[in-house]
Structures are given as structure tokens and as C-alpha cells.
């Protein structure tokens, strides 16, 4: 246990860090597992299975032809942003048939990241709709895949019909610092909303 020294020389236990839960959502093959793995300070829990011929009719792999596995329950990781602030990351499965898990994963979440791929932008509509309907704040993070076209933030916002208050950020789900910027955006957005309500 870490101890803090008070002004009078006595020691007292340091307060436990605040733990916050964030979801990472988006379409099939958009990079959710990669994002969680890039930033997690623990070995991430992954529930991936090989794609099979049986799933081929329901798993659209156009644009992600090299994808060989898929998340069937969730990804889980942890990152310490500050000594007193820890984020627990829960990556959701991307296919429709696993959406029954989302309500359970969303319970108690501070906010979410909706990961988007400009080659398959329509795949994130369902995640955007899910969080808007439930009033869960989210940041839209455009995963900049190699070779994918880059679009200005306002074009992405217009294509998805996002509210002006939803942050839109370009990121690389493979790079830790890029992912940290996305997560900080979600936390800052939520804290700003809570401050507005309190004020």
C-alpha cells in the first residue's frame, strides 16, 4: 500500500485510484482488438476464434480480406492514465449476432470509443446509434488504415450525421500514444458533461 505524508509528519494511506469503464465498439474488422492490445498495460484478454466457412455468409470480409479471427465475446485491457485514474477497456464484438452482449458490457460505462474505417464507414452506424439511443457519450475514432483514403473531420461527421458535441479523431489503433489520445478525449468529454450538469 502506498502511503502519503501529511503536513504533521504522519502518514496516511493514499486513496485508491478511480477506476473507469470504457467500451470500444465498431464494425467487424475495424481494429477494436488491436486498439485494446496497443494500449493495455496488462496482457489483454481476448476471446477470438478463427473465421470459418460456416460464418462466411454472415461475416462480410470485403475490405478486410486478410482477417482470420473474430472476437466472439469481448476484449479486455487496462491502462493507468494517472496515478489516481485507471481505465478498464472492454472491446465489443462487431457482428450483429453478438449484440446481445452489448447491454451487459455497457452497464456502468463512463463512455465509449466508436472505431470507424473510412473504407466501410456504414459498419459503424449501428454502434453510433446504440450509444446515441442510450445517452452514452462517445468519441468517433477513425482508424487510419494503410492505403485508406483520409477525409477531413467535418466530412466524416456529416457522413455519419453526428451531433456537433461528438469528438471526431484520426488515430492509428496500432500505436499506443495515438490510442491514449482517443481515450483521453472520451474521459474529458464525459467529465465536461458532468461539470456542466453540476454547474
TrEMBL record:
Keyword tags: GTP-binding, Hydrolase, Nucleotide-binding
InterPro entries cross-referenced by the UniProt entry: Gliding_Motility_GTPase, Gpn, P-loop_NTPase
Pfam family, one: ATP_bind_1
CDD domains on file: Ras_like_GTPase
Domain of life: Bacteria
Family: Belongs to the GPN-loop GTPase family.
Protein name in the entry: ATP/GTP-binding protein
Amino acid at each position: 500500500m502506498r502511503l502519503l505524508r501529511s503536513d504533521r509528519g504522519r502518514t496516511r494511506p493514499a486513496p485508491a485510484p478511480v477506476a473507469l469503464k470504457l467500451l470500444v465498439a465498431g464494425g467487424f474488422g475495424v481494429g477494436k482488438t488491436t486498439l485494446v492490445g496497443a494500449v493495455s498495460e496488462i496482457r489483454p484478454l481476448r476471446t477470438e476464434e478463427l473465421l470459418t466457412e460456416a460464418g462466411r455468409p454472415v461475416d462480410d470480409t470485403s475490405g478486410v480480406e486478410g482477417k482470420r479471427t473474430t472476437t466472439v465475446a469481448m476484449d479486455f485491457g487496462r491502462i493507468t492514465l494517472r496515478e489516481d485514474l485507471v481505465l478498464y477497456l472492454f472491446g465489443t464484438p462487431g457482428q450483429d449476432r453478438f449484440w446481445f452482449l452489448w447491454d451487459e458490457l455497457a452497464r456502468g460505462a463512463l463512455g465509449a470509443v466508436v472505431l470507424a474505417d473510412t473504407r466501410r464507414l456504414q459498419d459503424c452506424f449501428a454502434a453510433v446509434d446504440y450509444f446515441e439511443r442510450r445517452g452514452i457519450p462517445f468519441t468517433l475514432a477513425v482508424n487510419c488504415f494503410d492505403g485508406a483514403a483520409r477525409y477531413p473531420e467535418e466530412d466524416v461527421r456529416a457522413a455519419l450525421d453526428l451531433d456537433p458535441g461528438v469528438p471526431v479523431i484520426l488515430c492509428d489503433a496500432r500505436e499506443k500514444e495515438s490510442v491514449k489520445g482517443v481515450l483521453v478525449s472520451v474521459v474529458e468529454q464525459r467529465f465536461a458533461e458532468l461539470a456542466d450538469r453540476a454547474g
